[in-house]
Amino acid sequence: MHAQDHSPSESNIRVSELGTVALLLSESKFTTVTLTRAFGSSVPFLLMHLPPPPPISSDSSVETTFGEVGSAFWNAALGGAQGRLRGELDVRWERDSGGGVRPGLWYRDKRVQNWTLDAHRSVFTLPRILIGD
To answer: This protein's superkingdom (predicted)?
Structure first.
């Protein structure tokens, strides 16, 4: 589903109406202390470990590897039944037939299609499906 496919009558919501969500991105794995503090916070938290890609080899005979797989964590204030996402949105690691992995966004057990923002809008809005409404 693309953001531009939504008509104005579908009640897009301004980001300012969603409240605060803390996002922590890291190339390094999170420590137990970091995860414990985030999980115990009343602030909605999303932590994403995105390892750097493996170096590209100039030798075409070297087999391509996908490197380390990252991770995504969120606390109950974000992903729980009473959280911002109302327990209906998941980040799932998906494997393809070539052995690669990538994160996928799922809402009510259905994969959310890729979408992009309309660069001509003066206000940033999200479709209702992305806020669990």
So the answer is: Eukaryota
